[in-house]
Task: structure prediction
Amino acid sequence: MPARLSEMTDPSKEAAEFRPTFAERLDRQSGRIMVLPAVIVLLCFAIFPLIISAYLSLSRFALAQGGFTLKFIGLLNFKKLLTGSQQYHLLGTFGAFGPLQWLIAAIAALAVALAFGRYFRRGATILGTVGRLVTAALVLALVLLALATSAPGGVPGTVVNTLLYVVVGVAVQFALGLGLALLCGRPIRGRNFFRVLFFVPLMVTPVGIAYTFRMLADMQKGPFAPLLRSFGLGEWSWATDAWSARLMVLIGDTWQWTPFIFIVMLAAVENQPRDQVEAARLDGANGLQIFRDITWPAIAPVAATVVLIRLIEAFKIIDLPNVLTGGGPGLATESMTLHAFIAWRTQDLGGSAAVGYMLLFISTVICVSFFNFVVRPARRHET
Amino acid sequence: MRVTLSGIRKSFGALEVVKGLDLAIADGEFLVMLGPSGCGKTTALRMVAGLESVTSGSILIGERDVTNVLPKYRDVAMVFQSYALYPHMTIAENIAYPLRLRRTPPAERDAAVREAAGKVHLGELLDRYPRQLSGGQRQRVALARAMVRRPSVFLMDEPLSNLDAKLRGHMRSELKRLQADVGVTTIYVTHDQVEAMTLAHRVAIMNAGVVQQIASPREVYDDPANLFVAGFIGSPPMNFLTGDLLGGDFVCAAGRFPAPVAGSRPGVTVGLRPEDASVVAPEAGRIAGRVYAVELMGDHALVVCRCGDSTLTVKADKAAGYAMDAPIGIAFAERAAFLFDTATGERIRPAA
Amino acid sequence: MSAPPGALRRLFEPASVEAQSPFGTLVTYALLLVWSLVVLVPLYWVLITSFKGAAEVANGPFYVPFLDFQPNLDAWRFMLVENNTAGPYLNSIVVALASTVLAVLIGALAAYALVRIRFRVSLAAIGLFLLLLVLVIVAVVALRVPWALAVAVAVALFLLGVFTLVGRARASVGNSDIEFWIISNRIMPPIVAVLPIYVMFQALHLLDTRAALIATYTAVNLPIVVWLTRDFFAGVPIDLEESAELDGASKFRVFFTIALPLVRSGLVATFLLVLILAWNEYLLALFLSNANAQTMPVLVSAQNTTRGPQWWNMSVLIVVMIAPVVVISTLLQKHIARGLLVGAVKG
Result:
């Protein structure tokens, strides 16, 4: 039953029938064509460098006439860093274990043992066991390292410094960010003003932050100098003391990154189920109970994720220690990335790559473990 | 353009959702695929469109095998349940989009857009955006966009189900008129039997990935091929009584009455349409029972009866007044009873 | 406790269901103001220091311009007119903009394809590829095989392998694996990759050029773009894209005329976030640029060693470096935060 409309000839229809199949073939490959640039870029700038880096970490690099030479030396670079002449740099100097150190080590070992016990009771898989063993071994080793180097007589190396920035930094930033988000989530005027203002530090160039904090912390000419003088601290310099220098780096890092936690947690707090809060209030819960029973379970999945993202970035820290303190005094504030950079500057490409690889190992194991053992359980109630 | 589907199968992993579909659709025909949700009708339609790959079998549009042809080269137009209007384009741009892709000259394109818009009475709305339109108007835009490039085949996936009841009835008749005017082969998927009965030249009733019956609306109603079709078509649905055939009589818990089929066989189901039966005095009917409830529908009433262990619905006059639990009889003509094999669901027809 | 009990209660109890108690409000504002000061004081101090001179800093600290010191523009004049600040500034702008455009384009294309098109890549082929890549690198670097020969042999072996061995192995990776792989690149500390990238650009004689920085920044920010935009694309009703395909659009056409316009606001969010990350980047620029392609963060960090702490000049640099990001993040906070939230909230 052809009618008027279909009787009119349509040139494009015929074209479609006689079109060479090349266009169609190209069409079929469009998915691959779309992904290809990304894959090539990542191959060139991630996979390929990763392999070269692995090779570099196993070689000795030396400048030679008209170029350089690479000599394969096996695990010597790692050996030097872990047990040899560079051990003080990467791992630090070990102090003597006192009762406190033994106690903390025992608690850590016990916690790991308990976690394993619980895991085996629920039924274990080979892959899961191996993964947990790797995590447990690394975590215990890092705890012992931190204890040994912070004990009397010990000096932390770059691994412990990095861990300090990651663990303490992220913990403080999370606490502050969550606190500010809860305050800002209250029914008050001017929320939007605070939201915008608190967001700003996140976007400020880290190098700029580093110098700004150096200026602020200037003991003679900084804005807080009169205040410090009145406390009798006029002659004291934070930059010469290891712990105050680390504290400065942490303060700068916290100033920059608290907004990230804040802005994400604020969204989570604002998204918490209102009717549940209202129901709890009708049931007679007070503010603290509402937070514990309603708000926290609602925002925990987001909290876990945001901490993971922060962890991933925290391991890469370099700008602040390099500019703020130059890694000093001594190596008190040197992070692993800075360590690798300094090794590179002294033409020790092998050592630099080895440090980089160890950072990659530590950060990957910790981040993946955090994802598996914290983020996943926290998100298990989500659809 | 003719559309021929032969031996179409589709599996998602281990799950087979279309199990050997054979359909020959004539040029200009309006074919409705009807079935409950999950019966594979939408998947079948999407395979014709090329949006879903075919696991095995072949699809021909006209003489051309399009089984492995990308959607854009199939020359089919589809109207989606959500209308799929591009929210960032005006109505005119929406309708013109298929022509723009074909590099139709602007003047010709404008004329075609105006003609298509005129056909669905959208002339004044061409400069608006989809969000400024009502549901019925969006539906028309989707139709105009499908028509504007004069495709070989129209595919429609529940196009009316997002409209309210009143508008749906109106759009139904417009759609029927439009398809008759344009004369393009149309495959229309719906779960609504009223749409199927009113729109289709032929209805293909599907269940669990298999076509149960392909026939004209009248035929599927008057002569259902099996238990599923009989139960699916008709509102309120057909009543069923399970029992046995004994020497030309149907025997069940509710009673015994002569059947239109001779002989004896165990495991027989009798189907009886509510509109083919009537409520009579207890002794005058073929089956006896008691009134369970009476539902007034406006122009008629439905009497729900308990007969043995089954419940039967019978259409009655709107003035019918029956007390609950009042004893009644149900009368019907002998040929009004459809017989089916209980185990296979196949129709048992009287010997010719 | 001179206040009557009624007034005391009023202080600690909310006036209505929507409000909190006056005391609670007071504490909330006090805490928020404290943090506001924490945020503002460093920014304020940099700003006023940039209007000081050597004398004002040396005799300081001074806090309020015009009140306890006379602001002057000497430092600004010195840094912007006499010093070559414009070069690095231009570098920063060009590198940040170009790398962001590239990263968003490449990343969005990949994210779209991964959301909408099913991929199956044989695991054996990937394994073979990586194995051959390692072998080529070892052969070229350690055994001094000419690289053209090594690559040619590897390509031949790869094709041979794909046509014989790979067909038999069933294991393959799908979209989510590819996606995970792309995104997981963000976990890798850049220090691991930057040494070979440095060597690579040295070999290509591209060290200290904008092109090298643009390419590297594009790669570094690509995972973030894929991660964020995949959710925006997944939110586009698939009907729209299928309809466009039936209307005769190719996948590329669907991407550019339907999908992209529909995720515009999400793209803006991604663009801004990546732009700021590229603007702030320090480590890679430190390795890959020194004079010609130097970006602002490197210039600023280099001040220390070349001049000693001339805070007034340094402040000028910091102000011009952070002013754009502070302005952008203040004005477009909603958009940038949206990008962050999509990334963080879904996981």
Q: What stands out?
A: Strands of chain A lie at 59-64, 67-72, 92-93, 155-156. The two ends of chain A are 51 Å apart (CA to CA). The longest strand of chain A covers residues 59-64.
